[in-house]
Amino acid sequence: MQTIAVTGGSGKLGTWVIEELISEGYRVVSIDEKSSDRVRCKQLKVNLSDFGQVVGALQGADAIIHLAAIPAPIGFTNETIFSNNVRSAYNVLEAASALGIRKVVIGSSESAYGFCWSPEPFSPDFVPVDESHPLVPRECYGLSKAVAEQSGEMFSRRDGMRVMALRYAMIVAPHEYKGLTPGKPERYYKMLWSYVDIRDAVQATLAALRSEAEGFHALNIAADDSLCDQPSERILDDYHPEIAERRGKLDGRAGIVSNEKAKRVLGWKPSYSWEQYKETL
């Protein structure tokens, strides 16, 4: 039985990931600054900014899923958000290297592209946005995710570590669908109407854990469709008319952030859409 260390195990995605790992027979250790009565595995309270604590917590792990982070550029100072997210990711990767752990899955974000939290809205260079699009963050959170990805790529290059950085879209749990407003495209235009059901995010995370792909991979983890009840081509015309290049037609409500690479590399595909919950909206 493999032992999987999950940082941020008390968080929104972490609790779901741990439940699925347990159901599939893994031994799991949750590593977080706080414990949770929702987590049914060994829990360690760890300050991920302290390298010694991280090394001690990861002893005996066969692989790591690193989900711990301040999840948005709000509620803390910019310096705190950036330093917390970058230092924790670096310490996890450095500890993995020291302990001989060869597989790390990093929770990144589509915020690394820069669109979602930018103080001044701007449009992507091209659509659909795939992993070849430049990362151009304009605030501390997106920057922290971009730097964490660079750190993962460096450890992979130096040590041969297998590192997957998953650029999750906005993660939606089943009970949260009732609060969505797909009929108001103005609400989601900065994030390009991209989202992912938490159950699909969990399956993508476990697929990344099991993947035998060598090296470093950054992957968009998003639903197949957009979070809008209008055709994608129309909302792009209305909200992002300055986009210079459209790489193929977006049929119907097709997602504007591409998940094709994740499907190819992980053998994963999303199963859920907000349309399945229309009666609750």
Task: Describe the overall structure.
Helix 1 (12-23) crosses helix 5 and helix 3 (78-99) packs parallel to helix 4 (140-159). The model has no long low-confidence stretch (mean pLDDT 97). The protein has a single domain, classed as NAD(P)-binding Rossmann-like Domain (Rossmann fold), CATH 3.40.50. Strand 4, helix 3 (78-99) and strand 5 form a beta-alpha-beta unit. Helices cover 32% and strands 17% of the residues. With 281 residues, the chain is α/β, with parallel strands linked by helices. It has seven helices and eleven strands. The longest helix has 22 residues, at 78-99. Strands 3-2-1-4-5-7-10 form a seven-stranded parallel sheet, with helices on both faces. It has a two-stranded parallel ribbon with strand order 6-11.
